[in-house]
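We were asked to recover a plausible sequence for a given structure. The inputs and outputs are reproduced exactly as logged, with field labels preserved.

PROBLEM: sequence recovery
POSITIONS: 272
GIVEN STRUCTURE:
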């Protein structure tokens, strides 16, 4: 079935090529790409070997050759782009977070149901072989009853106040940052592995750097390039750099505790 699907990638930044590589390994035809400008679309199409460089989103939506759209744009575009794709009858895989607010996320779930197409959010860590094995052992009862869960997801990106990316701005990425960006990977993973569902949450979020230095121009996400920054401006930050979360799962009186923080250390997966 995958070989019969033609996909378009929306977004030419860090995640666009990542989705492209994954799809090609699965044998899915990646037909074209759309960037934030026709020039970016053209450069990405040439670099990645696509047949089509789209000029705007309407061109993607009207392309009858495309059955699936992968959305890898900044967070503030997700709701509108996913909504339009669903209404156009396209299957959608969207990068997380799905939208800027829970209201928008709920609306997308309802719309996907109404449009009767496949729609999903990209939480890829649940599919790592080790995590699939852990899920199998837990769900078959090999490990016995789950009494406590503890783990963390930590990375040192944006560690310093001079580190900057559009994600630190609430109007660009949403008011929830560390938890929405990497914390939701942990939450998805632990629910997938255990088969349990979160019932209630108590959280303490912290903004470590209330002021960051924004350089002239934008810094690419995880580009691996270090450049000298001559001119910056101070920007007030209202999004979270880290969070500690206490969760209660459905299923009786069992209580489960989780420690979660982001952008403050070396990345690691939670212990099982």
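RECOVERED SEQUENCE:
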């Amino acid at each position: 079935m995958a070989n019969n699907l033609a996909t378009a990638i929306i977004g030419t930044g860090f995640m666009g090529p990542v989705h492209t590589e994954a799809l090609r390994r699965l044998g899915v035809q990646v037909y074209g790409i759309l960037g934030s400008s026709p020039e970016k679309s053209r450069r990405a199409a040439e670099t990645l070997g696509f047949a089509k460089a789209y000029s705007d989103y309407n061109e993607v939506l009207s392309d009858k050759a495309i059955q699936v759209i992968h959305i890898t744009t900044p967070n503030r575009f997700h709701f509108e782009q996913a909504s339009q794709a669903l209404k156009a009858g396209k299957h959608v895989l969207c990068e997380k977070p799905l939208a800027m607010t829970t209201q928008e996320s709920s609306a997308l779930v309802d719309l996907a149901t109404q449009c009767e197409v496949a729609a999903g959010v990209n939480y890829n860590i649940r599919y790592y072989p080790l995590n699939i094995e852990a899920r199998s052992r837990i769900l078959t009862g090999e490990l016995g009853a789950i009494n406590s869960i503890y783990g963390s997801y930590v990375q040192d990106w944006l560690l310093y106040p001079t580190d900057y990316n559009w994600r630190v701005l609430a109007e660009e990425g949403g008011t929830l940052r560390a938890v929405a960006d990497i914390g939701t990977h942990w939450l998805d993973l632990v629910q997938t592995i255990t088969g349990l569902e979160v019932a209630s949450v108590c959280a303490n979020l912290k903004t470590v750097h209330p002021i960051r230095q924004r350089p002239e121009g934008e810094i690419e996400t995880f580009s691996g390039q270090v450049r000298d920054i001559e001119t910056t401006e101070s920007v007030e930050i209202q999004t979270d750099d880290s969070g500690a979360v206490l969760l209660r799962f459905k299923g009786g009186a069992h209580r489960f505790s989780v420690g979660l923080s982001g952008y403050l250390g070396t990345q690691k997966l939670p212990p099982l």
